[in-house]
Design goal:
- This protein is an all-alpha fold and about 70 residues long.
- The chain has a domain of about 35 residues.
- About 65% of the residues lie in helices and about 0% in strands.
- It contains two helices and no strands.
- Helix 1 packs antiparallel against helix 2.
- It is elongated and about 55 Å long.
Length: about 70
Amino acid sequence: MKINLENSFILSEETQNKLQSVIKMNVAATYSIAGISSIAIITENTIMFVSLSDLLQSLSYLRYMYSEFI
């Protein structure tokens, strides 16, 4: 059995720094929206809670959007 690996690529340091910034922003946005949705559920604002839950799900899918799966 033989496994062929594609050519790997290495990101430049500048690109890695930008990527880390985007990841941190995504995590901060996720926690912020989770906190706001918690307040919405406490205040019984179900429409806002459902909308924010949908947004949280979209944010969680962003990390897999441009991944290649074989």
